Write the structure tokens for this entry.
Amino acid sequence: MLIETTRAALDALDAHLAAEQADHRLPSVVAGLVRDGELVWSGAAGDGTVDHQYRCGSITKTFVAVQVLRLRDAGRLQLTDLVEQHVPGTSIGRSTVAQLLAHSAGLRAETAGPWWERTPGTSFRELASASLGPDAARARPGRRFHYSNVGYAVLGELVARQQGRPWHEVLAEELLAPLGMTRTSLRPQEPAAAGFAVHPFADVLLPEPEHDHDAMAPAGQLWTTVADLARWAGLLAGRHPELLAPATLEEMLEPQVVDDRPGAAWTAAHGLGVQVWNDDGRRSHGHGGSMPGFLAGLRVDAESGDSAIALCNSTSGLSHGLGAELLTILGPRPVAPWRPSAVAPDVLALTGSWFWGPIHLLLRATPDGLELAPAAGAGRGSRFVVTVGGWRGLDGYYADEPLRVVRHPDGAVSHLDLASFVLTRTPYDTDADVPGGVDPAGWR
């Protein structure tokens, strides 16, 4: 809650935001921090207020992606479906829905016509005729990351055709209304910030045009506020399982393609509709936004769920690291005390030392299931959850692989069968069914 944030931290946050506005010559900038699902701080500097709508640009894509995945969860489509099955008649029909979500379909980045972000939009039929013809491909599907605004126009059309009404009406009914996002809309609603370009060599402004981009709108047209984006951050932090299943969110956050640039270690990748970052092992996800006259950023810390939001009405200038800087000023989360948890006796009996041949592994009970890890050094490990007939790996080498408990006739545990590997309580236990057998002379 806000009362738990120290006055000194609040003052420091306000001061940092004021410095961002002044140092980067932004007409206005607003920001907010979310902790435990609460907007614990929000601030404004310059001519805007936290009640103003700002255009959030490509953060719009995260809304479209969530709705596509909800359609998948409802059985209306599969991520492996070809685009042709849902939006026929384009040259990109052999790409999959998942590839469009992850920007790996090899599709052109922008439209074939004039700079679409500064000109009125066209219907999807006109867009497809001009931009989804034989020259639309830039690489074979699945080859590499290639950001595509046009791809999200296709996904918006997919949602519309699946649900029989415009994509933004679907989002308003199925996502915005349940979340209480009453200040998020397709077009600006007062009070709303006007978009500007700031001259690079003089302190003067140039108004940027604003249009309805029609078929291209799913790529970046939504307008929103700090408070509304805080609610959306809560969904992306897993606080609304009634709208987005936890397993689906986890799938969204899995890196599909890395943003690989020669000569540099990669720290950014793309999941299914979200950007994912890895900063020295600290994972976060969200999306940036950029449209003429506006910049935006939303980042959610994967471990804590702490989120940072920033919106400004300038074509350039917003610091990429502003959100992280604000979270640092807010300070660390209070350390939650350790509490014991209930563990079923049959699960508790599986914990402890196991051996894959001579390799020592440790199996621990967790609140969600089991976790296997090397006793020392690097090696294969995974988390496991209960499934029909045994356990299923969640990550690492054993992701989606089965873990089966094999028992003696009297019910006692003989060994574990992990994707055909046998784990025994002692190295190469002769009482277990070790593939290839154990030398009868034993260890020597």
